[in-house]
Amino acid sequence: MALLLWLGSQLSSCWSNISVLGVFLTVFTLLLDFMKRRKKWSHYPPGPVSLPFIGTMLYVDFRNPHLSFNQLHKKFGNIFNLQNCWSNLVVLNGYKTVKEALVHRSEDFADRPYFPVYEHLGYGNKSEGCPFDLSFLVNNAVCNVICTTIYGERFDYGDATFKKLLHLFENSLNEEAGFLPQLLNEVPILLRIPGVPQKVFRGQKAFMDFIDVLIDKHMETWNPAHIRDFTDAFLKEMEKGKVAEENGFSYNNLRLVTADLFAAGSETTSTTLRWAFLYMLLHPEIQSKVQAEIDKVIGRERSPTMKDQASMPYTNAVIHEVQRYGDVAPVGLPHMTYRDTKLQGFFIPKGTTIITNLSSVLKDEAVWEKPNEFYPEHFLDANGQFVKPEAFLPFSAGRRACLGEQLAKTELFIFFTTLLQKFTFVLPEDQPRPREDGRFALTSSPHPYLVRAVPR
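The structure corresponding to this sequence follows.
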């Protein structure tokens, strides 16, 4: 009995100590949270109520952030603030606001925020006429363009290596969307827990490991006297030694740059093309008009060239409307203020992460006649000639605009016109109408759908 009483007293004492420790930790963390809350700057943009620790993260669906931003836009206006844990974010909406920030005040918004979640990577078969999913074929065709530039070779459509590369790349993109990556960015100490980056971002790790294999294979046949591609040119610069390394020409940068080029040179263009053929399925009358213009200007024998674009205003309008309505990069890449600045009367301090809600620009009701419909006439004047409204900003704008814009425009025109010259894309009879909403994983891509490609 005495033993039981003694054990009871010890347990009571431990529980009391644990309770005291718990209260202390709670008070400490609340105090820490309070100290890290943003300052009450005068004229700071409005926003939703910030909760302890997580800030306003519960207000955003990180699988569809642009939809959340559009809802907050209606409530708080063109400029509003958010807070991811203790990081301050300001979201810009609408054409006038985004243009003022990225074009007229480009230096003020020229920085990029730092993303701790990337540290672990090294930063700081179908038959004719039958239904098939064209995702892989389109990805392969587009990726081969950038692969030729980077690695000096193209991959066959049945190449197992290339299929693996595309699969790993898709997995890595999916890992970057959602609540958890955002939380790890804001609380990077969690990334120091052994095994966390490897488990959470195993797709990214596998993709980079595969990039290493491609580079190592490339180095085996490297000849400094014969530069075949970007990788060869980079390797030649690396040979210059320490000076070159100080200027960024290191093996680690080579793997990161080639991975970035692969991603930037393939994902958005191939996704845009998948949207394009989806809209051709859903709007066969528009597809017919495009094909009529192709037949008139190019014919069915000669291959399209970029010189044809100037003589094909309707096709050009359709491609631009695909980019607008498809909304492939709805929130763009984050910016960061380089210095304290003001925007439309609001004060935005230096170091604030800036989200440009490009979706709100491409579907701005003050600019577009039918912002929520697929309407190629947005890019045609009264005489049927091509015009491009200033609010067409799928590649962002200013000093941080997409460097691959011209390559993407060329690829979109050549691939789109070539395929519609040879085929008519129709919905298989036994298939339901494809979904028009997208799924978000850094880019907004269409849900899988099947098509029939009928030779013309």
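The longest helix spans residues 2-36.
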